[in-house]
Structures are given as C-alpha cells and as structure tokens.
Amino acid sequence: MERQQPFWQIIVKTIPVMMGYIVLGIAFGLVMNQFGFNLLWAVFMSVFIYAGSLQFVLAGLLAQGSPLVTIAITTLAVNSRHIFYGLSFIETFKRMGHRRPYLMFSLTDETYALFCSLPPDQKDPYTMGTIAVMNQLYWITGTLIGSVLGEVIPFELQGVDFAMTALFTVIVVDQLRFSSNKSPAVIGAMSSVIFLLLLGPDKFLLPALSVSVVALSLIPSRFLNRST
Amino acid sequence: MTTLYMVLAILVAAGCTIGVRILPFLIFSKRKELPKIIVSLEHTLPQAVMMALLFYCIRNVNFQHLHNWTGTIIAVTVTACLHLWRRNVLLSIITGTVTYMVLLQLGLS
User: Fold this and answer.
1) Do A135 and A217 lie in a common domain?
2) Phi (first) and psi of residue A65, to 5 degrees
3) A140: which of A29, A90, A148, A227 is 20 to 30 A away, CA to CA?
4) B60 at interface of A, judged by CB pairs closer than 8 A
5) Interface with chain A: mutation pick from B7, B42, B49, highest number of A CBs within 10 Å
6) Cα–Cα distance for residue pair A63/A155, rounded to 1 Å
C-alpha cells in the first residue's frame, strides 16, 4: 500500500502552498518591520507559532502591548478552527510514528488542505512529513525575505499592513460565497460593531469573539446550517 | 515592549496554538461520535471569527473624518470585487495592498 514517492514529486504538490506562503510570509515580515519588530521576532514567531492569520493579528496586539490573557483568548478563538482539522486525521496520524508530534503541531489551513487532497495510498509518513516540513520552510523563508526587505528598503512602506486586511477580506468573501447560510457572519459582524461602539477599537475583539461563540452555541443548529 | 513581554506573549500564543491543534487527538482518539455542538460549531464558527477579525483589521478607521476612511473602504472594495471576479487569492491581496498604499500617498487613509 505505501509505495514511497520520490522527493521531487512531493515538492510539486506543495508548489501552490509555496507561492502563497512565500508571498504572505513576505507580507508578514514587512508588517512586523512596520510595527518596529526586527527579523528575530518575526522568525521566532514563524518557527514557534506557525499560524498565518494569527501572526498578523498578533503583530498588532504585541505592538499595543496587549495583556497576555487577551493574547491567549484571541489565539484560541482565531485558531479554534484547527480543532476540526485534527478531527479528520485522528486515524491517519496513528501510523505516523516519530513524525506524529510535528504533524500535529504543523497542521495549518494549507497543510490540512494538501493532506486532504492526497489519495489514500499516498498518506504515508514520508509524504506527509515532507509536505509539512516544506510548507513551514516556505513560511519561514517568506518571513525572512520580508523582514530583510523591510530593513533594506530606504523609504517607508506605508500601508503595507493592509495586506492583513486584504487577507481577511478574501477569506470572508470565500466563506460567504461557499456557504448558503450567512447568519454566522452576520452574528460576527453584529457583535463586532456593537462592541466597537461600546468599548472602542482596542478592547472590542475579545468580547465580540466570546459573544459570537456563545451565540452560535445557543442558537439551535437548524437555524445555522441548513445546507452544505 | 520589553524582551520578557515579547517572549512570554509569543510563547503564550505558541502554547495556545499547539493546544488547539493537538486537542482533538487527545480527546477523540478513543471516541467515535463527536458531540453535536462541536459538529455544529465546525461549520458556523469560522465565518463569525473571520468577520470579527476583518473588523479588527479596520478598527482604527475614523468615520467622523471623510479622508480617514475613504482609502480603507476603497481598498477593501477593490480586494473583494477583484476576488469575486478572478478568484485568485494572491492577486486580490497584492492588488488590494498596492491600491491602499497608493491611496495613502494621495492622502487618503
């Protein structure tokens, strides 16, 4: 069943992620630089946290000096979707041996998507391990390039942090396009607007996320997922 | 920011991220059935969280002064429309960001 593929064939599968991670990694490095954090902090985050969208949010939170509790709860909320990625691979990962801990750590959106696209006979430890390691290397490479660019470019790249806004705009557009029921998005938008008006830009995120989770848990699911 | 704060903050974020990623393996390795509420949240939560994060990104927009939000609104609209049209994530992000940077130079933020 497990006929091992050559290394380059696995690399070919990761090319879409390579393009995405290097470009987004560069954006992240540039954003960190704009916020005044040097290369070491940016790479430190990409090595140990390795969660794209969270790292962008975290750059802003760190620059504000937000409390650790806010950072913890924001991280849990932003990355909560990862719980569902693991659920799809509980059985598969049991066969991964010494690679299992790293595979669990590195299960990002894109790595998850690539794993899902693998035919069953290619879900072997070598293929999955290689994909996971290469993807994180792309992300770190992009982060490095972005941080260095930020240092080297003589003028200020004002407004480059909009990359984060653009990223979330794209994610929201995709989510709305692919789901027939938009009420969770409406709940998220409403609680955000309410707490933005009540508490202001620096304190609204935490209550907005908490209220969304509670609301989505309490509202009977038949109102929330009619289809898909 | 002190170095200690930075290290602690990054470790907290790293710990929470790892926690979330290994949680399903810790809880559900033995069980077959997932609780209903988890199955439901799987579909609904991402939409709400991403919407809240989009608001987080534009949280500093000041609607009282026209020149303080036109740039952001235009760039978000350009990103969204381009993405609906071409469906290319990188193209949308790069074009949107460049649009915003140009508008910023023109005095719109």
Assistant:
1) no
2) 70, 40
3) A90
4) yes
5) B49
6) 21
Flag if B97 and A159 touch (Cβ within 8 Å).
Answer: yes
Using CB atoms, pick whichever of A51, A162, A172 lies closest to residue B75. Answer: A162
Cβ atoms of B14 and A48 closer than 8 Å: yes
Chain B residues in contact with A54 by the CB 8 A cut-off are: 13, 17
Instruction: Determine, yes or no, domain membership for A90.
Output: yes
Residue A119 sits in the same domain as residue A217: no
Residue A86 confidence class, pLDDT cut points 50, 70, 90: confident
Contact assessment for residue A185 and residue A176, using Cβ atoms and an 8 Å cutoff:
yes
| Complex ipTM tops 0.90 | no
CB contact A172 to B (< 8 Å) = yes
User: Is the entire prediction scored with pTM above 0.90?
Assistant: no
Which residue, among B36, B50, B88, would best test binding to A if mutated, counting the most A CBs under 10 Å from its CB?
B50
Q: What is the pLDDT of residues A49-84, one digit of tens each?
A: 999 889 999 999 999 999 999 999 999 988 988 887
Which residue, among A18, A13, A215, has the nearest Cα to A126 in the 3D structure?
A13
Domain count, chain A: 2
Query: Which three-class secondary structure state does DSSP give residue A225?
Result: coil
The answer to whether B77 and B103 are in contact (CB under 8 A) is no
Asked if A169's CB is within 8 angstroms of B83's CB, the reply is yes
Boundaries of domain holding A227: 179-228
User: How many helices and strands in chain B, by DSSP H and E?
Assistant: 4, 0
User: Which amino acid does the sequence have at A35?
Assistant: F
Q: Are residues A186 and A151 part of one domain? A: no
Asked if the structure places residue A173 within a domain, the reply is no
